[in-house]
Design brief:
Keywords: ATP-binding, DNA replication, DNA-binding, Nucleotide-binding, Plasmid. The chain has 33 helices and 31 strands. It is α/β, with parallel strands linked by helices. It has five domains: about 120 residues, no CATH class; about 150 residues, no CATH class; about 170 residues, Nucleic acid-binding proteins (OB fold (Dihydrolipoamide Acetyltransferase, E2P)), CATH 2.40.50; about 325 residues, P-loop containing nucleotide triphosphate hydrolases (Rossmann fold), CATH 3.40.50; about 70 residues, Arc Repressor Mutant, subunit A, CATH 1.10.10.10.
């Protein structure tokens, strides 16, 4: 503000006529208007607490309309400010934020002093015109007030002989007189007015333009008498003098030269001051008694439509491109763009509806000739594309803001249900083919009438249906994403309708919706509100949302632990003693969580904890469950299909009854950790495809529902006899099918062994929460884990070779090993690199992965009898048991062939087994029962066995 040049101010002060055409004088009233306008703009862009007060002040001075849009008066003031202060950019938001309004006003005072302008806010006039010989010069629209000093013979300087004061009452009377003259002589001067419009358009940069005659005459006549209602034009176009497009162009051009403005009710009104000022300068006010005709040529409708589109783009900042997409980019720092953005945000429904109708009419004009009567026509609907949408438009659909009804909103939501894509009637044509009446319908219209009645009185008539225009529509049921809700908060669904639907979204998908908030007027709304979708896209299931400060905290924490994952795991589980590799493995699981398979591979790590009671399994589960809001916890002893996968609910919507799918814990945990406690054989069928492929299919009420369930499984359970036996298979002890057990990357056996006194003391301290390690702020741990998830490490050929060598080595000392081992090792090395906040896997990462996996092999899969890692222990029998069972089948076959009933006595089987295999009778009976369970032998009566 210190860069003002006094000489430039003086130059402007000597040229006050420069602003006369704006009908604003640099006086005290102007100064107050400047303070009001700049005060509002500064409060608006700075989001000041004084915004309401400044808005009211500016509105009362006629500077703002009801939508915070600047009036013509405000624009004129800004134009003068630009000329007074050329070094200040009054359209830049950053400049407005820093502007010193007091200094601006002081400079205006200086201009007033330099001009020696005498300001009199209470204009006084001599009561008797006859006594002073003064008269009101209506042609010049001024009131000359004689200074009392003139009576004493004092003369006024020739440059300032009179003080000209604008008297609002007299101007108003004078304007009314002029308007009456124009109305009475309109037929004589209407062509002159049209010529003036064309000249003004050229000055505005609209070249080769010409007002459509009939439409222009009608519009001027309506404006002179009251106002112009475009809805009246649309409804009565058949009885008017011009085409609909001609009226559109006329209104566009009248707005361009600022002869009309649109009020809050949608009516166009005449800007009387600007209209009369232009007519006066052109000399038309002096020619109202004369008739003069000037011939001009009209352009074709295509040219006028193109010009109207160019105007829309230029003035409002938004337009529809050639491919039928409405594109708008919010905000570029300038005030004019700020106002356009504000207008669009606050009048979205009005703007979009108008553009949709215009787009339909243009499409219809081009294609209607090829459409037969009585047809139902599917036409392309306008698409919408927005960029840089302000944060203020983001809405929390759990509790929608009623003040945003009809306005643009952006929501992030989860898809609970989608209806099939159907066709719905958007509008219909009635009456005559050459000049039809178009009737538009909303979503609540149940039946399209075959006959409609329009008009009133003598003009009332019936019109028959010609054709219907339809488009696709789809209904959604949305809810706030689980990770944005309080764990105890119940989601509140909301309906959304997508007219112009063209895509499919899976139930459970997380989507970003740009739309318009509306009132739900259906029969049985589940929410008072409805979202009219303008655009919808699927987004990442889990948003890390880390700021630079969050990343710094995560890095500092990792460095404070010197990159030691065991120390970090201790911070994660401060109340659990021992089981260090398990704690590290769960830390890796948390760091490696992903919401979708990457490169066709599910990278999520699945961990099973099985062992003695009171070994910390439940504490691990609950710690992980409470760490992030989208982690899920299920007690399988009471679980049902509805709780695990979801349940179908019938919802009444615009498109009839739709089936809403309420998601269960597995799809809710997509992109998170699913914590399962204990066992339930009725639930196992829901886990297979989810663990392997990251999705689950459900078939209900004739519909296939595809659910994203790409979650990491953390499962804890106790063995049947409350004590884990390393010599028996897992299936025997926990009754989980081998098809599921084989999908776990790591299985940890936990034992409640006898402990030394010092170990017991550590357990006591851990349970009390007073262990010597101390606690780390949970938010710090969360930032670290979330930051680790953002990495995508590359597994080099060198690491591949390490895994190949290790797997090759395992093959030589393992039974029934398969390629799932390789998958698990790849997951582990990748997770370790992510936990180290790296995008590359190093050799030491492989060494730690090998150490963790070796623990799984040694405790769960090692068979002391055969001395190998037997992956058969995940099933119903180990390799050594399978060999013995095969031998028992041979014994039964041999003994049964010696008898007529083809059965073998158990006593003889036990005797031969002890002789050949060295096993006792109780072991023989156990193995026989296993064979019976697998359907290979049967037991028709006690003590007798046969082959099936």
């Amino acid at each position: 503000m210190d860069n003002y040049v006094d000489s430039s101010i003086n130059n402007l002060s000597n040229n006050s006529d420069e602003f006369e055409h704006l009908n604003i004088k640099i006086d005290t009233i102007f100064k107050q208007d400047v303070k009001a306008l700049l005060g509002f703009l500064k409060a608006k862009v700075s989001n000041s607490k004084d915004l309401d007060r400044e808005r009211k002040f500016a509105h009362n001075r006629g500077l703002l309309d009801d939508n915070d849009f600047p009036t013509k008066k405000a624009i004129n003031i800004l134009e003068i400010l630009f000329k007074l202060f050329p070094d200040i950019d009054f359209t830049n938001i950053d400049t407005i934020k820093l502007i010193d309004i007091t200094e601006i006003v002081d400079k205006i005072n200086q201009i007033m002093e330099n001009n020696n302008q005498i300001i009199n806010t209470e204009l006084t006039c001599i009561n008797s015109e006859s006594e002073n010989g003064n008269s009101i010069n209506s042609d010049k629209e001024v009131l000359t007030c004689i200074n009392s000093e003139s009576e004493n013979g004092n003369s006024i300087n020739s440059d300032k002989e009179v003080l000209t004061c604008i008297n609002s009452e007299l101007i108003q009377v004078n304007n009314i007189n002029n308007m009456d003259k124009i109305k009475s002589s309109l037929n004589k001067i209407k062509e002159d007015i049209r010529k003036l419009c064309n000249e003004l358009l050229k000055k505005e940069g609209v070249n080769k333009s010409s007002m459509p005659k009939d439409a222009f005459y009608d519009c001027i006549n309506w404006l002179l008498n009251s106002s112009l209602d475009f809805r009246y034009i649309e409804e009565n176009i058949k009885d008017l003098n011009a085409s609909l497009s001609a009226y559109k162009v006329t209104i566009s051009y009248l707005k361009k030269i600022q002869w009309i403005y649109e009020d809050t009710t949608g009516l166009y009104k005449l800007n009387v001051d600007k209209f009369l000022s232009d007519l006066n300068r052109s000399g038309l006010l002096k020619k109202v008694e004369y008739e003069k005709k000037i011939a001009t040529n009209d352009y074709d409708e295509e040219t006028r439509d193109r010009m109207a589109g160019a105007y829309e783009k230029l003035v409002r900042g938004f337009h529809v491109d050639d491919s039928g997409v409405f594109r708008f980019e919010f905000g570029d720092g300038s005030l004019d763009q700020y106002y356009v953005s504000s207008y669009l945000l606050n009048n979205t429904w009005h703007v979009i509806d108008r553009l949709q109708r215009n787009y339909f009419l243009n499409w219809r004009k081009e294609h209607v000739s090829a459409i037969e009567c009585n047809n139902t026509v599917l036409f392309p609907l306008l698409k919408c594309h927005f960029t840089n949408i302000p944060m203020t438009a983001k809405e929390y659909i759990q509790y929608p803001d009623p003040s945003k009804v009809g306005k643009l909103i952006v929501v992030e939501a989860e898809v609970l249900e989608t209806s099939p894509i159907k066709n719905i009637v958007i509008c219909a044509e009635y009456g005559e083919e050459d000049n039809p009446h178009i009737e538009y319908f909303d979503l609540n219209t149940k039946k399209i009438p075959e006959v409609i009645k329009i008009g009133s009185g003598e003009d009332k008539r019936e019109l028959k249906l010609i054709r219907k225009y339809i488009h696709t529509v789809q209904e959604f049921l949305l809810q706030q994403p689980i990770d944005e809700l309080n764990p105890k908060e119940e989601p509140k669904p909301i309906k959304a309708v997508w007219v112009g639907a063209e895509g499919l979204f899976d139930v459970g998908a997380k989507v970003r919706v740009v739309g318009i908030l509306d009132i739900d007027k259906s029969d049985r709304p589940i929410s008072p509100y409805l979202i009219r979708i303008l655009s919808i896209e699927e987004i990442e299931e889990f948003s890390h949302g880390l700021s630079e400060e969050d990343i710094k905290i995560a890095k500092d924490y990792y460095n404070s632990k010197k990159g030691d994952l065991f120390r970090i795991a201790d911070d994660l589980f401060p109340n659990i003693v021992d089981n260090e590799l398990l704690k590290v493995a769960v830390l890796l699981q948390l760091c490696n969580v992903e919401s979708e398979p990457r490169d066709g591979f599910n990278w999520n790590i699945h961990i099973l904890m099985v062992g003695d009671p009171s070994t910390g399994k439940s504490r691990v589960l609950k710690r992980v469950y409470t760490l992030f809001p989208n982690n899920q916890y299920v007690d399988l002893t009471n679980a049902t299909q509805a709780g695990l996968v979801g349940a179908i609910e019938k919802i009444k919507g615009y498109l009839g009854e739709v089936y809403s799918f309420r998601r269960g814990a597995i799809p809710k945990a997509n992109g998170a950790v699913l914590c399962l406690d204990e066992k339930n054989k009725d639930t196992y069928k829901y886990f297979n495809t989810s663990m392997e492929d990251g999705f689950t299919k459900v078939n209900k009420v004739g519909r296939d529902i595809h659910l994203k369930t790409n979650c990491a499984y953390l499962w804890g359970c106790n063995p049947k006899r409350e004590k884990f036996d390393l010599d028996r298979t897992l299936t025997e002890q926990i009754d989980i099918p081998d098809s599921i057990l084989s999908r776990f990357d790591l299985i940890f056996a936990l034992f409640n062994n006898v402990k030394e006194k010092e170990d017991i003391k550590q357990i006591v301290r851990a349970i009390k929460g007073g262990n010597e390690k101390g606690y780390v702020d949970e938010d710090v741990l969360k930032r670290y884990i979330l930051y680790a998830r953002t990495f995508n490490p590359v597994i080099s050929d060198e690491i591949d070779d390490f895994i190949v060598d290790y797997y090759y080595e395992l093959q030589g000392k393992s039974e029934m090993i398969d390629a799932r081992v390789i998958k698990s090792l790849l997951k582990l090395v990748r997770a370790i690199a992510k936990a180290h906040l790296r995008n590359e896997v190093k050799k030491e990462d492989f060494e730690l992965a090998k150490q963790i996996y070796q623990k799984y092999l040694d405790t769960i899969l090692y068979d002391p009898e055969s001395g190998v890692y037997d992956f058969g222990k995940l099933g119903k029998a180990t390799k050594s048991e399978r060999d013995k069972m095969d031998k028992l089948i041979e014994i039964i076959k041999e003994l049964s062939e010696l008898r007529d009933d083809n059965l073998a006595p158990q006593v003889d089987i036990e005797e031969r087994a002890k002789e050949l295999l060295g096993i006792e009778g109780h072991e023989v009976e156990r193995l026989l029962n296993k064979l019976k369970g697998e359907g290979e032998v049967y037991n028709p009566r006690a003590g007798m066995w046969g082959l099936t």
